[in-house]
Amino acid sequence: MGVVVSIANQKGGVGKTTITLNLGYALSKMGKKVLLVDVDPQFNLTFALIGMDVINYSDKNVGTLMTKESSIEDTIVEINQNLHLIPSHLMLASKEIEIINTYNRERRLEKALKPVFPEYDYILIDNPPSMGVFLVNSLTASDFVLIPLELSYFGVIGMQLMFNLMKMIREETNDSLRLMGIVPNKFTKQTRVPQMRLKELKELYPEAPILPTIPKSISIEKAQGEGKSIFEYEPNGKASRAFEKLAREVVRIAEGEE
Ligand SMILES: Nc1ncnc2c1ncn2[C@@H]1O[C@H](COP(=O)(O)OP(=O)(O)O)[C@@H](O)[C@H]1O
Ligand SMILES: [Mg+2]
Questions:
Q1: Which of 18, 189, 222 to mutate to test the pocket of ligand 1 (most atoms within 8 A of CB)?
Q2: Domains of the chain and any CATH numbers
Q3: Is 247 helix (H, G, I), strand (E, B) or coil?
Q4: How much is the pLDDT for 258?
Q5: 44: Cβ below 6 Å to ligand 1?
Q6: Is 64 touching ligand 1 by the criterion CB < 6 Å?
């Protein structure tokens, strides 16, 4: 039965898309069947996986799925045998109004995904950096939240916003939502600031699990620029190993407790 994980943070540029993509690849390499869902109107994840083909999905994307204009079977794109995608699209931003005005608007994604839960081990949802109907749908459909974080002053302070939102979701639509953990991203030991922030983070939120860190790596940026995962770009590098370690920890948390 698919474990649903939202990769979320209201801050932009912290690595949500990068982590969704590379964690998805890492899990699929472990033999897990993975579905990636892109609910960000900026469709960065979709573009990374299918490039300009995105224009061909105007009537088969996460927006049309949520308004029931397309079926789940028709909306899933096969990237490889173990890795599938529900794409986002340019028109998703305009769909937002339509979805807001429909019945059961917070549960549209959950209901749409439910029929394929048994077919996947992991469903990873990449989210927009705004607290709108897509993020609420994503958290309502999820078992876990994984929060990528850049260890900056405002990054650490901003965690409170995510925790407030999770509390609201638990009260209103999904009482079993759990924090899988925080992933410190773009981590570097070249300056002392990230380690200092990491210490502050642990002091501020002692209950929040800290997952394996992802190093700051030029290969990650370059891979993304070429529309590749880090495993296709530099399979034996430090960044690939970090994502493998993160994937093992995700599996331990998600499956160890079942
Ligand atoms: N660990 C990392 N090392 C270097 N660059 C990174 C790393 N993680 C993300 N980036 C880069 O930072 C930028 C923002 O990442 P992205 O995943 O798009 O963030 P978000 O989805 O949260 O907006 C991208 O250009 C990406 O390539
Ligand atoms: Mg993104």
A1: 18
A2: 3-256 (3.40.50.300)
A3: helix
A4: 46
A5: yes
A6: no
